[in-house]
Amino acid sequence: MLFNLRILLNKAALRNGHSFAVRNYRCGQPLQNKVQLKGRDLLTLKNFTGEEIKYMLWLSADLKYRIKQKGEYLPLLQGKSLGMIFEKRSTRTRLSTETGFALLGGHPCFLTTQDIHLGVNESLMDTARVLSSMTDAVLARVYKQSDLDILAKEASIPIINGLSDLYHPIQILADYLTLQEHYGSLKGLTLSWIGDGNNILHSIMMSAAKFGMHLQVATPKGYEPDPGITKLAEQYTKENGTKLSLMNDPLEAARGGNVLITDTWISMGQEEEKKKRLQAFQGYQVTMKMAKVAASDWTFLHCLPRKPEEVDDEVFYSPRSLVFPEAENRKWTIMAVMVSLLTDYSPQLQKPKF
Fold first, then answer.
1. What is d(CA 283, CA 248) in angstroms, rounded to the nearest whole number?
2. Tell me: the pLDDT tens digits for 221-269?
3. Is the four-CA dihedral 281, 283, 289, 294 of positive or negative sign?
4. Is the peptide bond before 305 cis (omega within 30 degrees of 0)?
5. Same domain (yes/no): 154, 194
6. Which of 111, 209, 303, 337 is catalytic?
7. 27 is catalytic
8. Same domain membership, residue 140 and residue 100
9. CA 262 to chain centre
10. N-term to C-term CA, the chain
11. One domain for residues 108 and 189
12. Model pTM score
């Protein structure tokens, strides 16, 4: 009863624009951490403060150290179940979530469009209420962000965005953990985005400034990020004293960048635009020539799957490329998300310097 009440109160606070979570007590003991995310939804990093995002990364590093390095078994999600709704196919999101949840002792249940067709066979409201009665959380990879918003409004359990047309927050957590591991700190880094103004970029724009990172973005004309998201990102940069630069010149965006980042030019559902997009993105391939204008310690990120026209082999398979550690970190970060939203677990590893 208290757990359900806390979830509802947290969700109400979040919908009213508050980023705090209701204080939670376990067995009469006060919480050990200032940040508590239990019962929250993860729809977009816009709804989370810098300290809350840092907490998820801290927890990711803690689980990775205890389980991978020390070989500990941590059944933190024993007895819990996860509904996994996938309207779009996936390799990393499905594998990281399914294996990660199971590794923590929980039971993931994979649901495709053949099993559950959101808002068609059954209303979103009814789906949310049924899933709330049978699972402890839902991760949904959907076409429309609005579907996630409705699920979160009607559900009494945490709803997690596994990807939507607007955001891909769990990917960005993996990116930041990878950069934290490589550079030792995120503050002061310059991220150079070369590509489409898509959901990955939107999630970076909703979070980079909260870590003190600068962002240089190059997109072809007509493929800029969402204007509303851009406006909010500009507000974040003012609040945190960082820089946000939007342009159409990929070489200029790469200049001085510590991290060169790109993504697919043609997302699922955009196949009919392939010819037009390939033409528009001419000159946006990340190459060693482009990397020459970047910072001396440059690295490269791509969330995968990768096409050669987006980045050449010389960069993609170079020692500067962090794409495969980035892919692995999808598992540790989604595990941390699940643990932080469903339990009172406190990290034992010393908090990293972000």
1. 11
2. 999 999 999 999 999 999 999 999 999 999 999 999 999 999 999 876 6
3. negative
4. yes
5. no
6. 303
7. no
8. yes
9. 15
10. 37
11. no
12. 0.89
